[in-house]
Write a structure and sequence with these properties.
eleven-stranded mixed beta sheet, about 40% helix, three-stranded antiparallel beta sheet, alpha+beta, single chain, about 25% strand
Length: about 350
Amino acid sequence: MSVLNNGLKSSWDKVVWDKGHPFQSFSMLKLFEDNWKGDFVPYHIYYEDSENKSLIPLYFYKNCPRLDYYKNKAGGFRHNIIMSHALVGWYGTPVYSSFKALKKSLSQAYELARDKNSALFFAGIDVRNIDLVNFLKKEGFKLCEFHSITVRNLQNIDGDPTKYLSKKRRGRVRSCINKAILSGVTLDSYKKIYRSKVTELIHNILIEDGVDSDVLPKEFIFSLLDNGPKGLDVLVAVSPLGEPIGVHINFYWNNKYYIWLAGHNRSLLKEYQQSHFLFEESIKRALMLNCKEIHAGRDPYEPKIQHGFEKIPLLAAIKAEDPIINDQAAKWLMGLEQRHNELYKL
């Protein structure tokens, strides 16, 4: 268990490419450690034998704006937490080639949690991963629905992705996309001259929604754009005047495509429909890369549904050796599930 070192980069990323998500890659973890707000210590676990590998990116959090936001909800949780940085990428599960290897790395995670008198927390478990869900239950974790992710299956889609939508949805989506094109909106890849504007588009959404800006620091976005970690794919919607008015910060990873961060000039949405335009272009980009699935983040708001995305529950798992902490952790997690269901009227 240690801070990542460059000698491990190739082996680490090979496992993550095969079994994990871009947010768990070596370069993304380093970006997080160098640019995120808060006080935390990395304790990354990597296990390898002659046949199998398993890794668990972990952080012992003393404080973190995003984690603290949730720790103060649903009755609150006052104890220490050790977890991945899934609150950045929403995919915080262990990465493994076999459950035998996972059990080995988990034994180290249990030892760390015991030493820090902390709860061990995994967020972002896809409910479709039945084997992992059952495995964690057998290990004594409490699992509850934490969020949902929006996903569209891209298998067997040929050509125009909107032709597979219902007639009503297709008419609505095509009308918006056609309006964007006729108004002069064009697609561009990321360029350095867009750096400040793209960051501003993303950050302003947080401010307009009343979210603490430290939840997604500007320094993190700048560093992400400057360093270009593996799989990064940025799509920019440009107005007829050449100004960025919308952006999707995406990742291509193995056979999946992730729309991760999005930002728009909301005052121009009715005029240019750049949100619908970028969803269409991101889906087409994923198809061009032969991806089987595209993810569009956790907020199931209407444009995503119109473009054929469906809500998939994301679970969180928590466990503590101390029975009092374990009981409080389970109650907190159940409270977060209730909050999520009320928030999205599930």
